[in-house]
# Entry
Amino acid sequence: MSQKTDSSEFAPGFVWQICLLGAAVLAFTIYSSKGNLWVASKIIREPATALHPWVIAGLQTMENGLAAFSGMPPKTPPLVAQTRLLAALIIVLVISPTVFLLGWRRRRLNPSPSTGELRLHGSGVLYLLTGVITVYVGLSAPPIVYFAEKARGDLRRAQSVQDNRDQIITDLNFLALDIYQYRLLPRKMNGGAGSYVGYTLPPEVSKARDATYSAAVRDNEVAIHARSTIYPSASVKVTVDATGRLVWWEYAGEFR
# Structure
């Protein structure tokens, strides 16, 4: 009893179905690119991003975020652009890995005998092409993920530093009002009667969570030093002049 062997490299109809699907997707992509060049110029910034559709989607997400921050409604990409991204996802993440892994499995199960004759089948060409795409995307994905996560971390840190700086500036403006009010009040109302001498920081300033404050008081000016409690190397120095204005701003550390 002889065992039946399968001489084809893939299941019947598999190769032509994959080729037909890929050709249809590519044909639609090429046709839509020619008919809508202005869309292609906005969605696909560089040819290299065609194999990284998630990068294009990230760009669109950032544009929507900037639009929302500017008070504009986010724009929905045109149907052609959405279909192009879907086509790229299908080719890069579905068709190419499937054909490559199935072809690799077939070659592991049925290694071709070494007859000294090199024959190039259509499935072999497809196997090599999808293998190149799969390996390229697989090797390039980890650096993209790393740098994307690093960029997000840097952005979150920069936003946190900016929030801390803004809060300190807000506190300094309130301190300037309190300091100038002390100068305007007469002595009998616990004021300076035209001078800053004798001024002390309010008790609630020492309980501030964003920074610690100290003041150097002179007759016609008060120099305030605010050091961040979240980022110890960051600080702000400013002077309240005789008119109550904040002058001579100086930023140090991460506030620069």
About this structure: The radius of gyration is 33 Å.
